[in-house]
Batch of 3 targets.
Target 1
Amino acid sequence: MKYFAQEYDPENEEFWGLVGLLHDVDFEQFPDDHCVRGIEILRSYDIDESLIRAAMSHGYGLSGVEFEPVHIMEKILYATDELTGLIGAVAIMRPSRSVQDLELKSVKKKFKQPSFAAGCSRETIQRGADMLNWQLDELITRTITAMRTLDCVE
């Protein structure tokens, strides 16, 4: 998220980073109530409502969350959340096990294979690209680039 903040909202890079850090706060413990429970958890710590809204908006239309992504940050989180899982799965199948040498064509090939990383919703990824008015190729390429800055696969 900080990578995208540098382009779209550099004065709030730390806020974007916190949103990225906290967006899945509830996923491991409550996968069936993901984001709904996240709202409860974050509110119990008196986290600012703007951060809660931004972090949990990635569950819009997926888990009963009514925070529709409206800010560019929320749209990017929504678009990249599922996609980073798919990119990570593609990366770990490579000999390098890294995003550093991962190319768009490799991700697109697996994107078209519904059985590969079946838990990553292609519909959600496409909806996110549409929210941003980006082509799918642009979203994938930019997300790979962002992940490279962290030298991670997820």
Target 2
Amino acid sequence: MQFLEKIFQSINSQILPSACIACERYQQHSLCAHCLQSLNINSLLNYECCYQCGIALNALELKEQRCAQCNLRPPYFDETYCLDRYEGILQHAIHQLKYHKRLAYAHGLANTWNRLFPKQLQNIRASYLLPVPLSTQKLAARGFNQSWEIARRIHCNSGIRKLPNALKRHHHNHQQAGGKLAARYRAIAGMFYLDNHFIAALRGQSIIIFDDVMTSGATLNEIARVLKDNGASHITNWVLLRTAKLLHV
């Protein structure tokens, strides 16, 4: 199926016009040359970031390469790599994918990731890649998991197995977007669990978690806690867009 999908996408790129996922101008590729250049220059990958949570560091934090918040309250995950800021030029594409169900943007976002994400990170040593899951109810309402739709198209080491169904999420009616950090941590506690069929396979393994947007880190921290409680050895976050952190109140 992936082979046929690649052929179809290759043909489309040659004979059909496309719209840039950032500026929406029509041209051949999913990201136009101008927007690609802008991301090459301004993406979060070009900045000194906390190795653990991926947030841009201030001058006082550069020596340790770790932000004050991770020093104060170390998360369960071990490292985080983010492509760009949430406020950057890819925000529109994420909104089109998540809220307007335009699945073509998943291909464009994945293609952008593949073009910009450093090759040495694509070849990172890990056993599995898991997308952040949606609850069954949310998945039914949206029709797809946006994190998986991007993750399934991104390039990574051939030894890394992608598992879209290993991680599960309970449903709750509260919206997590917005709010303070402590409230988000409380709201997400106990929301994730592992499918019993995968627990043994994940034990002792290095695992990548892929998410489309990272805000406070509460979701990824809870996932890392569950994985490490079940024996995972190392957790790396791959995140498309990163927002500024919330306050500790």
Target 3
Amino acid sequence: MKKIVEMTYEESYAELEVVVEKLENEKSALDESMALFERGQELSKRCALLLEEAELKIEQLSEEELINE
């Protein structure tokens, strides 16, 4: 399993979808469900972080463009 901090947004989101599907559709042992839930939480945080970074970069680029006009 790839480390979450090394994952792209797309990889994180895809795995998060798999985790959610497993939690919704499979009857797993409590320990396994908790591990999936924790992994899902970390994946969700990674997605949010990467989106925030992308938004900040867009804002910076937009500001630079306005300054250069």
